[in-house]
Amino acid sequence: MNLRLLLRLPLLVLLSAGCAHYPPNAPLTRHAPEQGYRFANLASPPGADDILLILTFSGGGTRAAALAYGVLEELATTTWQRDGRTLRLLDEVDIISSVSGGSFAAAYYALHGDRMFSDFEAVFLKRDVQGDITRKMIVPYNIARASSPKFGRIDLVAEYFDEEIYGGSTYGDLVRRGTRPFVMLNASDMSLGTRFEFTQDQFDLLCSDLSAFPVARAVAASSAVPILFSPMTLKNYSGQCGFVGPELPGSWTATTRQTYKAAEMRSYLDATARPYIHLLDGGLTDNLGLRGMLDRVAARDDPHELTRALRLGRFEKAVLVIVNAETSPDLALDRREEVPTIVQVFRAIKDIPINRYSFETIELFRTNLENWSRQLREQGAGDMDAGFEFYLVEVTFDAIPDAAERDAFRAIPTTLALPAEAVDRLRALGRRLMQASEGYQRLLRDLAHGP
User: Fold this and answer.
1) What is the Rg, in whole angstroms, of the alpha carbon atoms belonging to the chain?
2) Which residues lie below 8 Å from residue 408, measured CB to CB, with a gap of 6+?
Protein backbone atom coordinates (compact mmCIF):
# COMPACT_ATOMS: atom_id res chain seq x y z
CA MET A 1 0.00 0.00 0.00
CA ASN A 2 1.55 3.33 -1.00
CA LEU A 3 1.99 6.18 1.46
CA ARG A 4 -0.64 8.42 -0.15
CA LEU A 5 -3.35 5.77 0.17
CA LEU A 6 -2.27 5.05 3.74
CA LEU A 7 -2.66 8.72 4.68
CA ARG A 8 -6.09 8.87 3.04
CA LEU A 9 -7.42 5.73 4.74
CA PRO A 10 -8.56 7.39 7.99
CA LEU A 11 -10.37 10.06 5.98
CA LEU A 12 -12.11 7.42 3.85
CA VAL A 13 -13.20 5.54 6.98
CA LEU A 14 -14.64 8.71 8.51
CA LEU A 15 -16.42 9.64 5.30
CA SER A 16 -18.00 6.20 5.01
CA ALA A 17 -19.03 6.31 8.67
CA GLY A 18 -20.56 9.73 8.12
CA CYS A 19 -22.96 8.18 5.61
CA ALA A 20 -24.30 5.74 8.23
CA HIS A 21 -28.02 5.00 8.19
CA TYR A 22 -30.25 3.53 10.88
CA PRO A 23 -31.49 -0.01 10.08
CA PRO A 24 -34.99 0.56 8.67
CA ASN A 25 -38.03 -1.32 9.92
CA ALA A 26 -39.29 -3.79 7.31
CA PRO A 27 -42.45 -3.21 5.24
CA LEU A 28 -45.48 -5.48 5.68
CA THR A 29 -46.52 -7.23 2.47
CA ARG A 30 -50.07 -8.04 3.54
CA HIS A 31 -52.11 -7.13 6.59
CA ALA A 32 -52.89 -10.41 8.39
CA PRO A 33 -54.68 -10.05 11.76
CA GLU A 34 -54.14 -13.74 12.52
CA GLN A 35 -50.34 -13.31 12.33
CA GLY A 36 -47.72 -11.31 14.13
CA TYR A 37 -47.04 -10.29 17.71
CA ARG A 38 -50.55 -9.74 19.09
CA PHE A 39 -52.11 -10.72 22.40
CA ALA A 40 -54.69 -12.94 20.68
CA ASN A 41 -51.93 -14.96 18.97
CA LEU A 42 -50.24 -16.03 22.22
CA ALA A 43 -51.39 -19.03 24.25
CA SER A 44 -51.92 -19.06 28.00
CA PRO A 45 -50.97 -22.05 30.17
CA PRO A 46 -53.71 -24.73 30.38
CA GLY A 47 -56.33 -23.87 32.98
CA ALA A 48 -54.97 -20.34 33.47
CA ASP A 49 -58.01 -18.48 32.15
CA ASP A 50 -59.63 -17.71 35.51
CA ILE A 51 -57.13 -14.95 36.43
CA LEU A 52 -56.27 -11.86 34.41
CA LEU A 53 -52.86 -10.82 35.76
CA ILE A 54 -51.26 -7.62 34.45
CA LEU A 55 -47.87 -6.22 35.43
CA THR A 56 -46.71 -2.69 34.67
CA PHE A 57 -43.05 -1.67 35.03
CA SER A 58 -42.18 2.02 35.32
CA GLY A 59 -39.14 3.92 34.15
CA GLY A 60 -36.10 4.64 36.27
CA GLY A 61 -33.04 3.00 34.70
CA THR A 62 -31.45 0.06 36.50
CA ARG A 63 -33.34 1.10 39.64
CA ALA A 64 -36.63 0.30 37.90
CA ALA A 65 -35.33 -2.92 36.34
CA ALA A 66 -34.08 -4.23 39.70
CA LEU A 67 -37.36 -3.43 41.47
CA ALA A 68 -39.30 -5.19 38.68
CA TYR A 69 -36.93 -8.17 38.89
CA GLY A 70 -37.69 -8.52 42.61
CA VAL A 71 -41.42 -8.61 41.85
CA LEU A 72 -40.90 -11.34 39.24
CA GLU A 73 -38.89 -13.32 41.80
CA GLU A 74 -41.75 -13.03 44.30
CA LEU A 75 -44.30 -14.22 41.74
CA ALA A 76 -42.04 -17.13 40.79
CA THR A 77 -41.94 -18.42 44.39
CA THR A 78 -45.65 -17.87 45.14
CA THR A 79 -47.60 -21.11 44.71
CA TRP A 80 -50.98 -22.59 45.65
CA GLN A 81 -52.82 -25.86 45.21
CA ARG A 82 -55.75 -26.50 42.86
CA ASP A 83 -57.18 -29.86 41.82
CA GLY A 84 -54.10 -31.63 43.16
CA ARG A 85 -51.72 -29.45 41.14
CA THR A 86 -49.20 -26.89 42.37
CA LEU A 87 -49.67 -23.63 40.49
CA ARG A 88 -47.25 -20.73 40.30
CA LEU A 89 -48.45 -17.14 40.20
CA LEU A 90 -45.78 -16.10 37.71
CA ASP A 91 -47.26 -18.51 35.15
CA GLU A 92 -50.59 -16.66 35.40
CA VAL A 93 -49.14 -13.38 34.06
CA ASP A 94 -51.00 -12.39 30.88
CA ILE A 95 -49.57 -8.96 30.07
CA ILE A 96 -46.51 -6.91 30.99
CA SER A 97 -46.57 -3.27 29.93
CA SER A 98 -43.39 -1.28 30.46
CA VAL A 99 -41.49 1.91 29.76
CA SER A 100 -37.85 2.93 29.85
CA GLY A 101 -35.89 1.13 32.61
CA GLY A 102 -38.72 -1.33 33.23
CA SER A 103 -38.53 -2.43 29.58
CA PHE A 104 -35.13 -4.07 30.13
CA ALA A 105 -36.65 -6.58 32.56
CA ALA A 106 -39.92 -7.03 30.64
CA ALA A 107 -38.21 -7.79 27.33
CA TYR A 108 -35.69 -10.20 28.84
CA TYR A 109 -38.37 -12.18 30.66
CA ALA A 110 -40.55 -12.33 27.53
CA LEU A 111 -37.65 -13.80 25.55
CA HIS A 112 -36.14 -16.15 28.12
CA GLY A 113 -38.70 -16.94 30.81
CA ASP A 114 -37.18 -18.53 33.93
CA ARG A 115 -33.69 -18.31 32.45
CA MET A 116 -33.87 -14.69 33.50
CA PHE A 117 -33.32 -15.69 37.13
CA SER A 118 -29.90 -17.13 36.32
CA ASP A 119 -28.75 -14.65 33.64
CA PHE A 120 -30.19 -11.19 34.12
CA GLU A 121 -28.00 -10.06 37.00
CA ALA A 122 -24.77 -10.60 35.09
CA VAL A 123 -26.17 -9.56 31.70
CA PHE A 124 -27.70 -6.29 32.89
CA LEU A 125 -28.45 -5.55 36.55
CA LYS A 126 -24.90 -5.76 37.93
CA ARG A 127 -23.14 -4.54 34.83
CA ASP A 128 -21.83 -1.06 34.04
CA VAL A 129 -24.09 -0.66 31.02
CA GLN A 130 -23.79 3.11 31.14
CA GLY A 131 -19.99 2.91 31.05
CA ASP A 132 -20.09 0.42 28.19
CA ILE A 133 -22.35 2.72 26.17
CA THR A 134 -20.13 5.73 26.86
CA ARG A 135 -17.03 3.84 25.72
CA LYS A 136 -18.83 2.74 22.56
CA MET A 137 -19.84 6.32 21.76
CA ILE A 138 -16.35 7.80 22.04
CA VAL A 139 -14.80 5.41 19.52
CA PRO A 140 -13.82 7.72 16.60
CA TYR A 141 -15.60 5.54 14.04
CA ASN A 142 -18.83 5.71 16.07
CA ILE A 143 -18.47 9.46 16.62
CA ALA A 144 -18.39 9.81 12.84
CA ARG A 145 -21.36 7.48 12.40
CA ALA A 146 -23.42 9.40 14.95
CA SER A 147 -22.70 12.63 13.06
CA SER A 148 -24.72 11.32 10.12
CA PRO A 149 -28.16 12.99 9.85
CA LYS A 150 -29.70 9.52 9.40
CA PHE A 151 -27.98 7.72 12.27
CA GLY A 152 -28.22 8.90 15.87
CA ARG A 153 -26.80 8.09 19.28
CA ILE A 154 -29.84 5.92 20.00
CA ASP A 155 -28.83 3.65 17.11
CA LEU A 156 -25.46 3.04 18.78
CA VAL A 157 -27.28 2.27 22.03
CA ALA A 158 -29.57 -0.19 20.23
CA GLU A 159 -26.52 -1.90 18.69
CA TYR A 160 -25.04 -2.37 22.15
CA PHE A 161 -28.29 -3.75 23.58
CA ASP A 162 -28.60 -6.11 20.61
CA GLU A 163 -25.05 -7.45 20.89
CA GLU A 164 -24.63 -7.58 24.67
CA ILE A 165 -28.09 -8.10 26.22
CA TYR A 166 -30.67 -9.45 23.75
CA GLY A 167 -28.44 -11.50 21.45
CA GLY A 168 -29.97 -10.43 18.15
CA SER A 169 -33.51 -11.52 19.14
CA THR A 170 -36.43 -10.17 17.11
CA TYR A 171 -40.16 -10.04 17.66
CA GLY A 172 -40.33 -13.06 15.39
CA ASP A 173 -38.66 -14.99 18.22
CA LEU A 174 -41.46 -13.90 20.57
CA VAL A 175 -44.05 -15.02 18.02
CA ARG A 176 -42.38 -18.42 17.72
CA ARG A 177 -42.21 -18.70 21.51
CA GLY A 178 -45.97 -18.40 21.29
CA THR A 179 -46.84 -18.08 24.97
CA ARG A 180 -47.86 -15.33 27.31
CA PRO A 181 -47.02 -12.97 28.84
CA PHE A 182 -47.68 -10.51 26.05
CA VAL A 183 -45.19 -7.68 26.50
CA MET A 184 -45.92 -4.12 25.43
CA LEU A 185 -42.75 -2.01 25.30
CA ASN A 186 -43.85 1.62 25.14
CA ALA A 187 -42.15 4.65 23.63
CA SER A 188 -43.44 8.17 22.93
CA ASP A 189 -44.35 9.64 19.55
CA MET A 190 -42.27 12.82 19.46
CA SER A 191 -44.67 14.74 17.19
CA LEU A 192 -47.99 13.71 18.74
CA GLY A 193 -46.82 13.52 22.34
CA THR A 194 -48.66 10.20 22.66
CA ARG A 195 -47.80 6.61 23.57
CA PHE A 196 -46.38 4.31 20.87
CA GLU A 197 -46.32 0.58 21.62
CA PHE A 198 -44.22 -2.10 19.97
CA THR A 199 -46.98 -4.50 18.95
CA GLN A 200 -48.11 -5.64 15.52
CA ASP A 201 -51.39 -3.80 16.07
CA GLN A 202 -49.42 -0.54 16.22
CA PHE A 203 -47.12 -1.50 13.34
CA ASP A 204 -50.18 -2.31 11.19
CA LEU A 205 -50.79 1.44 11.05
CA LEU A 206 -47.37 1.84 9.43
CA CYS A 207 -47.76 -1.24 7.20
CA SER A 208 -44.58 -2.49 8.85
CA ASP A 209 -43.62 -6.02 9.90
CA LEU A 210 -42.76 -6.07 13.61
CA SER A 211 -41.60 -9.72 13.39
CA ALA A 212 -38.38 -8.61 11.70
CA PHE A 213 -37.74 -5.84 14.23
CA PRO A 214 -34.98 -6.34 16.86
CA VAL A 215 -36.28 -6.38 20.45
CA ALA A 216 -33.18 -4.39 21.41
CA ARG A 217 -34.30 -1.46 19.23
CA ALA A 218 -37.70 -1.43 20.91
CA VAL A 219 -36.03 -1.34 24.33
CA ALA A 220 -33.73 1.46 23.14
CA ALA A 221 -36.67 3.51 21.86
CA SER A 222 -38.54 2.96 25.11
CA SER A 223 -35.54 4.35 27.04
CA ALA A 224 -34.46 7.13 24.64
CA VAL A 225 -34.10 9.91 27.21
CA PRO A 226 -34.34 13.30 25.44
CA ILE A 227 -31.10 15.24 24.91
CA LEU A 228 -29.00 12.39 26.34
CA PHE A 229 -30.03 10.19 23.41
CA SER A 230 -31.41 11.04 19.99
CA PRO A 231 -34.91 9.92 18.93
CA MET A 232 -35.34 6.62 17.13
CA THR A 233 -36.74 6.80 13.59
CA LEU A 234 -39.22 4.42 11.94
CA LYS A 235 -40.23 4.47 8.28
CA ASN A 236 -43.95 4.74 7.56
CA TYR A 237 -45.13 2.45 4.70
CA SER A 238 -48.83 3.12 5.30
CA GLY A 239 -51.13 2.34 2.38
CA GLN A 240 -49.00 -0.51 0.99
CA CYS A 241 -50.38 -3.57 2.83
CA GLY A 242 -54.16 -3.36 2.54
CA PHE A 243 -54.71 -2.25 6.12
CA VAL A 244 -57.89 -0.23 6.65
CA GLY A 245 -57.72 2.08 9.63
CA PRO A 246 -60.46 2.91 12.12
CA GLU A 247 -63.22 5.27 11.10
CA LEU A 248 -63.75 8.34 13.21
CA PRO A 249 -66.68 7.47 15.51
CA GLY A 250 -69.86 9.10 14.25
CA SER A 251 -72.27 7.73 16.82
CA TRP A 252 -73.53 9.97 19.61
CA THR A 253 -72.59 7.14 22.00
CA ALA A 254 -68.88 7.43 21.16
CA THR A 255 -66.86 8.92 23.98
CA THR A 256 -64.51 11.83 23.50
CA ARG A 257 -61.65 9.47 24.35
CA GLN A 258 -62.67 7.01 21.62
CA THR A 259 -62.91 9.83 19.07
CA TYR A 260 -59.50 11.18 20.10
CA LYS A 261 -57.82 7.76 19.95
CA ALA A 262 -59.28 7.06 16.49
CA ALA A 263 -57.94 10.40 15.20
CA GLU A 264 -54.53 9.63 16.71
CA MET A 265 -54.41 6.24 14.98
CA ARG A 266 -55.48 7.69 11.65
CA SER A 267 -52.62 10.20 11.74
CA TYR A 268 -50.25 7.30 10.97
CA LEU A 269 -52.22 6.35 7.84
CA ASP A 270 -51.02 9.36 5.85
CA ALA A 271 -47.50 8.37 4.81
CA THR A 272 -47.24 11.49 2.67
CA ALA A 273 -47.68 13.79 5.66
CA ARG A 274 -45.77 11.50 8.05
CA PRO A 275 -43.26 9.40 6.08
CA TYR A 276 -41.14 9.00 9.23
CA ILE A 277 -42.06 8.52 12.88
CA HIS A 278 -39.64 9.68 15.59
CA LEU A 279 -39.77 8.05 19.03
CA LEU A 280 -38.52 9.09 22.47
CA ASP A 281 -38.53 7.65 26.00
CA GLY A 282 -41.88 6.08 26.88
CA GLY A 283 -41.81 7.69 30.32
CA LEU A 284 -42.60 11.06 28.76
CA THR A 285 -46.18 9.97 28.04
CA ASP A 286 -46.72 7.16 30.55
CA ASN A 287 -44.08 6.49 33.19
CA LEU A 288 -46.10 3.62 34.70
CA GLY A 289 -46.61 1.65 31.50
CA LEU A 290 -50.33 1.56 32.33
CA ARG A 291 -51.86 3.61 29.53
CA GLY A 292 -51.74 0.74 27.04
CA MET A 293 -54.09 -1.36 29.16
CA LEU A 294 -56.23 1.65 29.95
CA ASP A 295 -56.63 2.32 26.22
CA ARG A 296 -57.77 -1.26 25.67
CA VAL A 297 -60.29 -1.18 28.51
CA ALA A 298 -61.64 2.30 27.78
CA ALA A 299 -61.90 1.80 24.00
CA ARG A 300 -64.74 -0.77 24.25
CA ASP A 301 -68.27 -0.02 25.42
CA ASP A 302 -69.21 -3.71 25.54
CA PRO A 303 -67.50 -5.52 28.45
CA HIS A 304 -68.12 -8.88 26.76
CA GLU A 305 -66.27 -7.67 23.67
CA LEU A 306 -63.28 -6.81 25.85
CA THR A 307 -63.48 -10.21 27.54
CA ARG A 308 -63.40 -11.90 24.13
CA ALA A 309 -60.56 -9.66 22.93
CA LEU A 310 -58.49 -10.75 25.93
CA ARG A 311 -59.40 -14.39 25.22
CA LEU A 312 -60.87 -14.89 28.67
CA GLY A 313 -63.58 -17.53 28.63
CA ARG A 314 -64.31 -17.39 32.34
CA PHE A 315 -62.28 -15.47 34.87
CA GLU A 316 -62.91 -14.64 38.47
CA LYS A 317 -60.01 -12.36 39.37
CA ALA A 318 -58.38 -9.36 37.72
CA VAL A 319 -55.00 -8.50 39.26
CA LEU A 320 -53.03 -5.36 38.47
CA VAL A 321 -49.48 -5.09 39.86
CA ILE A 322 -47.97 -1.63 39.42
CA VAL A 323 -44.20 -1.54 39.93
CA ASN A 324 -43.34 2.12 40.32
CA ALA A 325 -39.71 3.18 40.75
CA GLU A 326 -40.42 6.90 40.45
CA THR A 327 -38.48 9.20 42.73
CA SER A 328 -39.94 12.14 44.65
CA PRO A 329 -39.76 15.81 43.53
CA ASP A 330 -36.55 17.68 44.38
CA LEU A 331 -37.65 20.16 47.04
CA ALA A 332 -34.08 21.33 47.67
CA LEU A 333 -34.62 23.99 45.00
CA ASP A 334 -37.17 25.66 47.24
CA ARG A 335 -34.59 26.21 49.98
CA ARG A 336 -32.34 28.35 47.79
CA GLU A 337 -32.75 31.80 46.30
CA GLU A 338 -30.50 31.14 43.32
CA VAL A 339 -32.05 30.84 39.88
CA PRO A 340 -32.42 27.12 38.98
CA THR A 341 -29.99 25.81 36.37
CA ILE A 342 -31.00 24.62 32.91
CA VAL A 343 -30.57 20.99 34.03
CA GLN A 344 -32.83 21.54 37.06
CA VAL A 345 -35.47 23.25 34.91
CA PHE A 346 -35.37 20.39 32.38
CA ARG A 347 -35.81 17.81 35.15
CA ALA A 348 -38.78 19.71 36.59
CA ILE A 349 -40.46 20.04 33.20
CA LYS A 350 -39.94 16.32 32.60
CA ASP A 351 -40.85 14.95 36.05
CA ILE A 352 -43.72 17.12 37.33
CA PRO A 353 -46.28 16.18 34.62
CA ILE A 354 -45.19 12.50 34.83
CA ASN A 355 -45.80 12.25 38.58
CA ARG A 356 -49.24 13.88 38.40
CA TYR A 357 -50.19 11.95 35.27
CA SER A 358 -49.23 8.65 36.92
CA PHE A 359 -51.60 9.15 39.87
CA GLU A 360 -54.51 10.03 37.58
CA THR A 361 -53.79 7.05 35.31
CA ILE A 362 -54.05 4.62 38.25
CA GLU A 363 -57.34 6.11 39.42
CA LEU A 364 -58.77 6.13 35.88
CA PHE A 365 -57.78 2.51 35.29
CA ARG A 366 -59.26 1.43 38.62
CA THR A 367 -62.55 3.15 37.76
CA ASN A 368 -62.72 1.58 34.29
CA LEU A 369 -61.99 -1.91 35.61
CA GLU A 370 -64.61 -1.60 38.35
CA ASN A 371 -67.13 -0.42 35.73
CA TRP A 372 -66.21 -3.42 33.55
CA SER A 373 -67.01 -5.81 36.41
CA ARG A 374 -70.22 -3.97 37.29
CA GLN A 375 -71.48 -4.10 33.69
CA LEU A 376 -70.81 -7.83 33.51
CA ARG A 377 -72.90 -8.34 36.65
CA GLU A 378 -75.74 -6.14 35.38
CA GLN A 379 -75.88 -7.62 31.87
CA GLY A 380 -75.36 -11.25 32.89
CA ALA A 381 -73.50 -13.66 30.64
CA GLY A 382 -73.61 -17.18 32.01
CA ASP A 383 -70.35 -17.83 33.82
CA MET A 384 -69.53 -14.14 33.74
CA ASP A 385 -72.75 -12.83 35.34
CA ALA A 386 -71.03 -12.57 38.73
CA GLY A 387 -68.38 -10.19 37.39
CA PHE A 388 -64.91 -10.54 38.86
CA GLU A 389 -62.90 -9.51 41.89
CA PHE A 390 -60.32 -6.77 41.36
CA TYR A 391 -56.97 -6.73 43.19
CA LEU A 392 -54.64 -3.72 43.02
CA VAL A 393 -51.04 -4.25 44.15
CA GLU A 394 -48.79 -1.17 44.19
CA VAL A 395 -45.05 -1.60 44.63
CA THR A 396 -43.81 1.92 45.21
CA PHE A 397 -41.28 3.71 47.39
CA ASP A 398 -44.17 5.61 48.98
CA ALA A 399 -45.24 2.36 50.66
CA ILE A 400 -42.01 2.12 52.70
CA PRO A 401 -43.10 2.96 56.27
CA ASP A 402 -39.72 4.15 57.57
CA ALA A 403 -38.99 7.69 56.38
CA ALA A 404 -35.20 7.31 56.41
CA GLU A 405 -35.33 4.10 54.38
CA ARG A 406 -37.87 5.63 52.01
CA ASP A 407 -35.59 8.63 51.37
CA ALA A 408 -32.61 6.33 50.85
CA PHE A 409 -34.36 4.42 48.08
CA ARG A 410 -35.65 7.61 46.50
CA ALA A 411 -32.08 8.91 46.40
CA ILE A 412 -30.89 6.04 44.17
CA PRO A 413 -30.12 7.76 40.85
CA THR A 414 -31.66 7.05 37.47
CA THR A 415 -28.69 5.45 35.74
CA LEU A 416 -27.70 2.28 33.90
CA ALA A 417 -24.96 1.48 36.41
CA LEU A 418 -25.67 0.76 40.07
CA PRO A 419 -23.53 -0.87 42.77
CA ALA A 420 -24.32 -4.56 43.29
CA GLU A 421 -25.40 -3.77 46.86
CA ALA A 422 -28.02 -1.28 45.62
CA VAL A 423 -29.34 -3.82 43.12
CA ASP A 424 -29.71 -6.45 45.86
CA ARG A 425 -31.54 -3.99 48.12
CA LEU A 426 -33.97 -3.08 45.34
CA ARG A 427 -34.65 -6.74 44.52
CA ALA A 428 -35.37 -7.50 48.15
CA LEU A 429 -37.55 -4.40 48.42
CA GLY A 430 -39.67 -5.50 45.46
CA ARG A 431 -40.48 -8.77 47.21
CA ARG A 432 -41.03 -7.11 50.58
CA LEU A 433 -43.44 -4.49 49.23
CA MET A 434 -45.38 -7.18 47.37
CA GLN A 435 -45.76 -9.19 50.57
CA ALA A 436 -46.82 -6.10 52.52
CA SER A 437 -49.53 -5.11 50.02
CA GLU A 438 -53.08 -5.56 51.30
CA GLY A 439 -54.28 -6.34 47.77
CA TYR A 440 -51.63 -9.05 47.36
CA GLN A 441 -52.43 -10.65 50.72
CA ARG A 442 -56.14 -10.66 49.88
CA LEU A 443 -55.34 -12.36 46.55
CA LEU A 444 -53.26 -15.05 48.30
CA ARG A 445 -56.03 -15.73 50.82
CA ASP A 446 -58.63 -16.07 48.06
CA LEU A 447 -56.40 -18.37 46.03
CA ALA A 448 -55.84 -20.59 49.07
CA HIS A 449 -59.56 -20.82 49.72
CA GLY A 450 -60.39 -21.78 46.12
CA PRO A 451 -63.31 -20.59 43.94
Assistant:
1) 23
2) none
Dist CA 238 CA 206 (whole Å) = 5
Nearest alpha carbon to residue 414 among 320, 330, 290 = 330
> Tens place of pLDDT for every residue, the chain, 451 residues?
554 544 443 444 444 455 799 899 999 999 999 999 999 898 876 666 678 899 999 999 999 999 999 999 999 999 988 888 888 999 999 999 999 999 999 999 999 999 999 999 999 999 999 999 999 999 999 999 999 999 999 999 999 999 999 999 999 999 999 999 999 999 999 999 899 999 999 999 999 999 999 999 999 999 998 888 999 999 999 999 999 877 665 554 455 666 777 788 889 999 999 999 999 999 888 877 777 766 766 555 555 555 655 655 567 888 999 999 987 666 666 777 778 777 666 566 555 545 555 666 777 777 777 777 677 667 665 554 556 788 999 999 999 999 999 999 999 989 999 999 999 999 999 999 999 999 999 999 999 886 5
Whole-model pTM: value is 0.88
> CA–CA separation, 7 vs 195, rounded Å?
49
